[in-house]
Amino acid sequence: MEMKVETNSSPMPPKLSKQTGWRIWWSLLRPHTLTAAFVPVFIGTAYAMQVGGINQIHFPLFFIMLLACLLIQAATNMFNEYFDYKRGLDHEGSVGIGGAIVRDGIQPKTVLNLAFGFFGIAMLLGVYICMNSSWWLAAIGLVCMAVAYLYTGGPLPIAYTPFGELTAGLFMGVIIIGISFFIQTGTVTSEVVLLSIPNAILIGAILLSNNIRDLDGDKENGRNTLAIIVGRENAVGVLASMFIVSYIWTIALIIVGIVSPWMLIVFLSAPKAFKATKGFIGKSIPMEMVPAMIATAKTNTIFGFLMGIGLLLGYFL
């Protein structure tokens, strides 16, 4: 199950251009969020290779798992687009949304049907995964898809509560890495759970950064996100702490021998984390915080990609 980069309306709507042609549909997928689906699958598979060797890796399973995660990520984005529109939270000047409905004119029903269609394809791919691993994954997959829907759907969307960051981190970070490891090895170990924590924290950081940006609009619309509860200044402090803990945790993984010293390569992402934190300080206008939000998302992507590379380097070298 995947979580999307949460968005909301801006109290001072800027002028944003409409998409045309195929770009309308590409924008609906929110492609900048799809790396969050790739990273956990990559990490889980790379660690499976480190533990069991390259001959153990079932590459068709890796690609099917990756495609299923991409589809669910995209579907979750579409559910967000649809339900925020239905609740009147998005308008033509909303910052951060795909804008397929309010700016580009796609019918809401089309967006909803496409999301369910992506879910359906992901379920078919899940059957292949279960046939080649364990049918217990079917139950886990259904729970993940239900949470993906309820993230912005249902009577009390998870994204509107203080638990959005925790939910996103748990499902995208811990569970997806765990499943990716399990389908290759047939087991889940405490080591792979510990390995997943930094990525889970950084996924939560993406959601927190979005909620910091959208704090004023969220408060007006009755949401109760973590950023609203602790306040903007404290939320930026929490974000900085999340970055710091992720890097410290990685060092701890090296010390206890779960990963090799090659994992220090993740520190190449630290400048992005610093840029993200600095970019939020003293800002209150949503458009001014977009670069910091983007830097947060890039920190997660670069950190996760480098973590996977570090695992591969530890195995091959």
From TrEMBL:
Keyword Methyltransferase: no
GO biological process: menaquinone biosynthetic process; vitamin K biosynthetic process
Annotated transmembrane regions: 58-79, 111-129, 135-154, 166-186, 192-212, 251-270, 290-316
Region forming the signal peptide: none
Domain of life: Bacteria
Catalytic class of the enzyme: transferase
Pathway(s) annotated for this protein in UniProt: Quinol/quinone metabolism; menaquinone biosynthesis; menaquinol from 1,4-dihydroxy-2-naphthoate: step 1/2
EC number, UniProt record: 2.5.1.74
UniProt topology in membrane: Multi-pass membrane protein
Pfam families in alphabetical order: UbiA (PF01040)
Compartment list: Cell membrane; Membrane
First-listed, main subcellular location of the protein, grouped into a coarse class: membrane
A GO CC term attached to the entry: plasma membrane
Reactions listed under catalytic activity: an all-trans-polyprenyl diphosphate + 1,4-dihydroxy-2-naphthoate + H(+) = a 2-demethylmenaquinol + CO2 + diphosphate
CDD domains: PT_UbiA_UBIAD1 (cd13962)
InterPro entries to which the protein is assigned, alphabetical: MenA, UbiA_prenyltransferase, UbiA_sf, UBIAD1
Keyword entries, A-Z: Cell membrane, Membrane, Menaquinone biosynthesis, Transferase, Transmembrane, Transmembrane helix
GO MF entries: 1,4-dihydroxy-2-naphthoate polyprenyltransferase activity
Keyword set includes Transmembrane: yes
PANTHER family membership: 1,4-DIHYDROXY-2-NAPHTHOATE OCTAPRENYLTRANSFERASE, UBIA PRENYLTRANSFERASE DOMAIN-CONTAINING PROTEIN 1
Described purpose of this protein according to its UniProt entry: Conversion of 1,4-dihydroxy-2-naphthoate (DHNA) to demethylmenaquinone (DMK).
Alphabetical list of HAMAP family matching this protein: MenA_1 (MF_01937)
Family affiliation: Belongs to the MenA family. Type 1 subfamily.
Protein's name according to its UniProt entry: 1,4-dihydroxy-2-naphthoate octaprenyltransferase
Organism: Bacillus pseudomycoides
Species lineage: Bacteria, Bacillati, Bacillota, Bacilli, Bacillales
